[in-house]
Amino acid sequence: MALDWLALENLLRHQAGALYGGEAISQLAHALQSAECAERDGAPAALITAALLHDIGHLVAEQGDDDIADGIDDRHEQVGVAALKTLFADDVIAPIALHVAAKRYLCAVEPGYLAALSAASRASLALQGGVMDGLEADRFAANPHARAAVALRRWDDEAKVAGKTTPPLAHFLAIARSAARATAGAAQ
Fold it and tell me: H or E segment at 37?
């Protein structure tokens, strides 16, 4: 299901209030915190947008905590890419597509990364393929979008603070519109 702007905004405004995958914050709070981290670090509009929308696939797939407990991976990164591909180009889509792989990669190459993951993120890691082996890690590192995906992953990990104040959704949607494909940005 490809999203248009209205559907994307409605999804974020009206369906992202549920708790985010076993974390103590809502999906919307996680999205806003991720985007705020990207903006704080001086990321370009496309990467701020990727940070905002990296988990949109959970909302599209309507994944709940029961799915994870039942051992179901909704492949939210793939669902998200399919939903966003008419609105955004690769500079937004590729980091979203790779943010799960980036978690698997960081677990393989960065000592202490796995232990620092939240309990919910560790639980989903097993469903997402587990820690990469050496060959997978080498392949991931060679991807031209690997750096952006790793940056997104780090913001994703950081964006789980209950009660944190962020700029409003409208602020980040304006940035997302600036990062949209020219034809998608013109179509309201």
Answer: helix 27-40
Domains in the chain: ranges and CATH: 5-99+145-186 (1.10.3210.10)
Name the residue among 88, 96, 99, 92 with its Cα closest to residue 3: 88
Residue ranges in the chain assigned as alpha helix (H): 5-15, 27-40, 45-53, 56-61, 65-69, 76-84, 90-109, 113-116, 119-127, 134-142, 146-158, 169-179, 182-186
Report the 10 Å Cβ neighbour count for 112.
8
Percent of the chain with pLDDT over 90: 64
| 25: Cα within 13 Å, side-chain hemisphere | 20
30-57 in b/e form (b: 16+ CB < 10 A) is bbbbbbbbbbeeebebbbbbbbbbbbbb
Please, which residues have CB within 8 angstroms of residue 153's CB and are 6 or more apart in sequence? 99, 102, 103, 106
- Separation between Cα atoms, residue 23 and residue 173, nearest integer Å: 24
Confidence grade of residue 73 (pLDDT, cut at 50, 70, 90): low
* Predicted TM-score of the model (pTM): 0.88
DSSP state of 41: T
